[in-house]
Amino acid sequence: MKYLIRLSLWKKIIIGLLYYTVIVALISVFARSYVVGLFVFLGLVPPSVWLAMEGLSYLLKSNWWRWLVVCLLIYTVVGGLLFSVPRLPILNETIRNLHFHVPMWFGMIFLFTASVIQAVKYLATGNGQYDLIGVRLAEVGLFFGILGLLTGMIWANFTWGSPWSGDPKQNSAAIGMLIYLAYFVLRGSISDEQMRARISAVYNIFAFAALIPLLFILPRLTDSLHPGNGGNPGFNSYDLDSQLRLVFYPAVLGWTLLGFWIATVKIRISKIEKTREDV
Amino acid sequence: MLSQIALLIRKDFVIDWRLKHPFTGILLYIASTIYTVYLSFDAVVTPAVWSSLFWIILLFIATTALAKSFIQEERRHLYYYFTIKPNILILSKLIYSFIYLSSIGLFGLLIYIVLIGQPEFSLGLFLANFFNGVLGLSVAFTMIASLAVHTAQKGNMMAILGFPVILPILLLTISNSRRIVEGGVWEEISSFSLILTSVNVIIVVLTLILFPYSWKS
After folding, report:
1. Residues of chain B contacting residue A204, judged by C-beta atoms under 8 Å apart
2. ipTM for the predicted complex
3. So where are chain A's domains?
4. pLDDT per residue as tens digits for the range A64-77
């Protein structure tokens, strides 16, 4: 126990993750569907860690990737609307929403994970810079989450007949939004700057841990109306000649990087504002 | 270390025993809530409603009951800061709030069964799920209480911060307890129970890691 207390925060987090993986592995023996969600999440972690650790400072400095984002998004919009898509009952042409709705969730998860990593870095170092970056990332992540909900609701209006059907994924996403709205309320209610940074960083990490089972595990335990769940065909099963993938993967990359672009602009603005306040 | 934990738990117990009014107040709160429910649902309550209603009552009780766990320590803050490690403090708080909330919950369950009636189900299974869910509720709300104590509106913040975090635990607990109340057996809920336990373990581990950071001020 004494040894455990002395470990650095990073090592504790790694131990925590190992712990988490071991437990989940044990459980996966009992419940197969659990594994899928976990692997989706674990697959998303390394790129987000990179984006938050090394990538973000690189993205803040360099410029070429913004041109890449512009190209990717033009390709996504043109290709997503004009390329031929598989003909399916009910879905029909709305299948094109795959390129505009699903990438929002990818963007949100990347941004939230990056924000949590900034919170961990803040707790480890006490440097206010990380707090500032973490908040901006969470703001853009929340914005992407709201866009994801809205695009999903418009789509659901045409395919499921109503914008809100109480689908497990819809509920989980809505609760996720509540968590991050609570995060901003928490920040608003603490006046001391250092205290605000520390308490909100702690809440950010704590709430993120609650968000993971909510987004990746609970929806897979019950039937969902979403394509690919509960007996509905997903795009893996009918997209045999990879027509959708051709646009989908660039779309995920493009929208996610757009999120980080917005975040870098916000980070720069708040850095300038902070410097002006200090002067 | 163990003796320190035992001492801190004993201190919390003695405070509640001597003051009496916080604990009896919470008991009165849960009793009157259940009585209100009894008066407003005069028709037959289906098993599914029965179990959901019980957990929602317990959720609101937990918000109020566990808010005090750090508010009452404000004057002793500095004293603890120099005498004990934060991990020991939080461990004792977690154990105490688990005992506290489960005794309130069991008292509530008794009144609930007396007033609203009891569907046919296996009580042992229900209680196992009850303690599993109460563990999650008590740990999450104790951690949230340690954050909320630093904010301007302590009472509201417990609900605002706590509800979204507690929802995964609560959803699993409610779905488990609905299956049990509708006559389910262990095989039907085993995988959900294990997931609930693992979510609890994650929350306990995170609380132990994160509490020292929210504590120093």
Report:
1. none
2. 0.87
3. 48-271
4. 888 888 998 999 88
